[in-house]
Structures are given as structure tokens and as C-alpha cells.
Amino acid sequence: MKAMRLEDDWGLENIRLRDLPDPEPGPDDIVIGIEAVSINPRDRLQMLGAYGRIGGSPPIIPLCDGAGRVHAVGENVTRFKPGDFVCPNFSRTWISGTASDQSQLGMHGGPIDGTMCELMLVPEHSVVMAPQHMRAAEAATLPCAAVTAWNALIEQGHLTAGQTVVLQGTGGVSLFALQIAKMHGARVIVTSSSDDKLARVRELGTDHTINYRQTPDWHKTVRDLTGGTGADHVIDVGGSDTLDKSVSAVRSSGTVSVIGVLGGVTSQIQLGKVVTRNVRLQGVTVGSREMFERMVAAMELNGVRPVTDDTGFAFEDLPAALARLPEGKHFGKVVCAF
To answer: What is the CATH number of the domain that holds 166?
Structure first.
């Protein structure tokens, strides 16, 4: 089988196209014929060695997102059969419950080999049936960003109809959070520095948009839009650049889900606002297989389709696909189709 593999040392320049032996399933394994993968900021950081000891070490097959058809099954497998349309879960050691140290040990793309291969060997327990109405290029976007948004808003955020959600930017997590929030009857406010991207999220159902370049005190606009109360949920992907304003934008007893650190990993926030207003700061990193399955059921019921970038990449184009993320020109998930 063909595989892209990071070899010798960390760094995107060390990605190599290799011909590796086809995997054979053990009694409790399945082999997925991967048809498409998608790229996350996490993948790029992983290949640069930014995850330290929890990221494993080269050689390693990168990426955690993918979708395809079951190619072969082991003799004990009962949940899947050849031909089923499936996705691997983000972590093969996170089946249910909340995150733990153990769940980090099973992350695909580091420390365990990931999805950037034609045939992927995975234990049966870490595979999810993909939404049957989606194409492989769409379903391949789900394991990381979509489950993270679902976990933040639904599993831990307990979003209900009529609540207000603030989303920062138009990256993968934010776009999935937009679709999930609207699916649950919430009002959505999106911030971005691009008027073109704000126009596109309005087409997807966003209720209010704020250009934070033109309105640096966007948190005050959020409070104005909510009658002075503040939003129920804020999805914070900026980290040090945005966290203090996120706390100011959320209502008393509201939730700020800290998902990204695009602006930096350290932050100064007014802790008095967190304490006196009973604000909940929640770090969120992906989710369990059972969360993934519940999200799939909701997406199938509502016919949700992921937003994918209009620039498609082939298998061998992984370095170019990775380079597209920091450019910031994409809208929707960047996908490589095999």
C-alpha cells in the first residue's frame, strides 16, 4: 500500500511517500480502505514535534481524520462487515466518558500511526459508522474538528434551543459548531477579520457577524446583541489573543470552551470576572467514540454536510495541503482524496 510517512526527524520536509506492506487484520481488527483524509492544525503541529512526548516519535504515518470502506475484518469482528462506510475514531483508547491521560495514548497521527495510508489497520472498538448521506471527502472531516465542536456545545456545554453561541473565526471547529448550534435551535454570532468569510457564514445560517478588525471590542457588541446579558457559550480558538474578551462576552454562569491557542498559549485574564460571574472555562480536545456516534446520528437526521475547501488535493499532495492552513485562505476543511 501507499503511505505518507514522517521519517528520521520532525519537520514537514521529512514527509516521504512510501510503499509499505498491506496490513492483515488480527482477530479483533478491521482494515479500512481509506478514500479521503482531512487536515487539522493539530496535524501540522504534530509533524513539527510540538506535542512533545505524547506525540510519539518518527517514523509515523500522520493525520487523524479519514473515511473509507471496510476492506477486511478479523474473525471476532461483529460490528462491521466488508464494504461498510466508516471513520476511525480520533483516539483508539477513548471509547466513552471524558478525556483522560489514557485517551492521549491512542491518538491517531501521533503517537499511533494515522490515516494517511491506503489501508489502515484499526481495532474494531475504535471505528464509527460514517454518515451514510455523505461522500468520503465530507465524512473524512469529522473525527477531530466536528467531534470537538459537538463535545464543546452538546456533551459538555448542554446547549439548548434559544441560547446564543459566539464562534471565533471560520476554521473547522467554528464551522462545525455553527452547523451544530443551528441544528439545535441556537442563535449564532461569528467573528472574523474577513468580510468575505463573514458573508459566507451568513449563507450558512449565522444570525449576526462581527468584523473584529473593524470592531476590536467585539465583546461589547456581543453584549449589545444579547440585551446586555452576554452569550451562553463562547467557542474560543484564539487563546491569549481572545480569552479575556471571551470571558467578557459570556453571560453569568455561561461557558467559554477553550479549544485553540492560535494567538498563543499564555493569557492574562481578569479572574475577578470569572469568579464573581460564575463563568465556566472548559478546555476541550476532541471526544470519545460514543460522542462521535451520537453526533453521526444527529447529522444523519438533519442531513448536515460538512463545509469543505474548494481546493482539492490528491494523495501525494499532503505537503501542499498542510501548507494551505497557515495561509488562511481556505474556507472549510482542507481534504486530500485518494
So the answer is: 3.40.50.720
